[in-house]
Design a protein that fits this description.
- There is one protein chain.
- This protein is α/β, with parallel strands linked by helices.
- The chain has one domain: TIM Barrel.
- It contains 9 helices and 9 strands.
- Strands 1, 2, 3, 4, 5, 6, 7, 8 and 9 form a 9-stranded parallel beta sheet that branches.
- Helix 4 crosses helix 5.
- It is globular.
- The two termini are 33 Å apart.
- The mean pLDDT is 96.
- The structure holds pyridoxal-5'-phosphate.
- Pyridoxal-5'-phosphate binds next to strand 9 and helix 9.
Length: 228
């Protein structure tokens, strides 16, 4: 232990402290908020630094990148957990089901079919969140608001308790709080316990609105490398 603690460990500690503070500020137990460290575009060596600093849950948005990075890391850290958080093509469903502990981006019937099919053939099904396009932005992933209730009910019937909750990414240019409130009320209506909302710019606000998972990348790993 001669080396000084690397900046990544300091940034991670800072994020954890802000999570605790945001939870305490609204009378919530910080233990009810899980930090997903979003490591997309960052090398496995950075993930390892976060592991060394005690982080165990990571988020990646591309199946291929996750497949390249995580199996080797799991060899040495078996309690690692991987969340896939990006838009998912149906032809990647099988790899996603094989790799992930949670898929946060279920957003359409064709993907539900592909995941169910993959689960059947692989004999495993990750936990699932439905991504809701709370801003109804045409270019964004997520089930449109007006289709969300039906889609949630259908997936509930199909996947049972494996459907854990909802995820959203508010429009970049808007106050995120109304989007967090909408997602919370939808999850509440459907009796779903997990609310994945809040990124580097807005996770304290998301925690104030009931987030149980926050997905934080830049605040932990620094700016993403341009390529990859
Ligand atoms: C990249 C990403 C994040 C993390 O974003 P930061 O602003 O770097 O914290 C969170 N959620 C999703 C779905 C992402 O793709």
């Amino acid at each position: 232990m001669t080396a000084p603690s690397p900046p990544l460990a300091d940034r991670l500690a800072d994020v954890r402290a802000r999570i605790d503070a945001a939870a305490h500020a609204v009378g919530r137990d910080p233990a009810a908020v899980t930090l997903v460290a979003v490591s997309k575009f960052h090398p496995a060596s950075s993930v390892q630094q976060a592991i060394d600093a005690g982080q165990r849950i990571f988020g990646e948005n591309r199946v291929q990148e996750a497949a390249a990075k995580f199996p080797a890391l799991r060899e040495t850290t078996p309690d690692l957990r991987l969340h896939l958080i990006g838009g998912l093509q149906t032809n990647k469903a099988k790899d996603a089901v094989r790799l992930a502990d949670m898929i946060e981006s279920l957003d359409r019937p064709a993907l539900a079919d592909a995941l169910a099919h993959a689960a059947e053939s692989l004999g495993r099904l990750p936990d699932l969140l439905i991504e809701v396009n709370t801003g109804d932005e045409p270019q964004k992933f997520g089930v449109p608001r007006e289709q969300a209730d039906d889609f949630i009910r259908t997936c509930r019937n199909r996947f049972g308790d494996k459907l854990r909750g909802l995820m959203c990414i508010p429009p970049a240019t808007e106050d995120p709080t109304p989007h967090f409130q909408l997602l919370r009320s939808m999850a509440h209506e459907h009796g779903l316990p997990v609310l994945s909302m809040g990124m580097s710019a807005d996770y304290p606000q998301a925690i104030a609105q009931g987030a149980t998972l926050v997905r934080v990348g830049t605040a932990i790993f620094g700016p993403r490398p341009a390529s990859a």
